[in-house]
Amino acid sequence: AGCEKESSSYMWIYILLGNMLRGIGETPITPLGISYLDDFAKEEDVPVYVACLHTIAMLGPMFGFLLGSLCAKLYVDIGFVDLESITITPQDSRWVGAWWLGFLISGVTSFLAAIPFCFLPKSLKKPEEANNDRTSYGLLENIGATKKTLSPAKPKPRNQPIYPFLSDFYTSLKKVLGNQMYFTLSCCSLLQFSSFIGFLTYKPKYMEQQYGQSTSKSNFLIGLTSLPPVGIGIFLGGLIMKKYKMGIIGATKFAFTMSFLAYVIALLHFFVGCENHVVAGMTVSYE
């Protein structure tokens, strides 16, 4: 009867809201950060700076896995129960690690890391040697000059939409999705991240089930062996682009070649595996 009773805890709502707020705070870093670098850095230095930004972004999940490995070694009710009374170990299937501790540590760290952003200047001076017409900065200047040459604005009609930015957003979105190169790049990124997330999600579970490893050790191995090579590859790609001064066509050929080689090597995963565990009623009969 106890197994049929559903959980009445609503703590998942707090986790949902916390992740939503975290996503809102993290979203501007990548698009606005890259635009910031592109506007105020030398053209030949932008690939290296962007590579550094993405490399640091890859180090975050690595430290997250290592932190998760440490928290998984601690009992879930640490600080509330006498640990000497716990008779099971992390290798036991009934063990539940202190999963909630990672949220507190990462939340405090994110808050402290956000404080220096308050002291950054609102805008930087455009370098004189940069091309003003290649960035959004130059685009804004061109728009301002165009407005000065136009005739005086006509009086706005009375029936204005309540939210005019929605129509502007729809127009901008339509133009962006109509760009074939951007749309193709978005589809490629979608496929790459989908496979990467699946890899990180299920490989620790695979190691636990097939190799008898604890959750703590699985997270530790994934964080230590999978993510650093990705960060190193992003950084080296930025250096190669800077050294050979690749344009958009050269960068596309370089990215296609590297992605093709990565997919060919990834095919070797089909030849690696273990036999399924013998489970009565699933892999073998009850007899």
UniProtKB/TrEMBL annotation:
Entry-linked InterPro entries: MFS_trans_sf, OATP
GO molecular function: bile acid transmembrane transporter activity; sodium-independent organic anion transmembrane transporter activity
A biological-process GO annotation: monoatomic ion transport
Transmembrane segments: 12-34, 46-76, 96-120, 181-200, 220-241, 253-272
Main location: membrane
Membrane topology: Multi-pass membrane protein
UniProt cross-references to Pfam families, sorted A to Z: OATP
The organism's place on the tree of life at top rank: Eukaryota
GO cellular component: basolateral plasma membrane
Compartments, record wording: Cell membrane; Membrane
Keywords: Disulfide bond, Ion transport, Membrane, Transmembrane, Transmembrane helix, Transport
Entry's family note: Belongs to the organo anion transporter (TC 2.A.60) family.
Name the UniProt record assigns to this protein: Solute carrier organic anion transporter family member
Naturally occurring in which organism (per UniProt): Bucorvus abyssinicus
Origin organism lineage: Eukaryota, Metazoa, Chordata, Craniata, Vertebrata
Gene name for this UniProt entry: Slco1c1_2
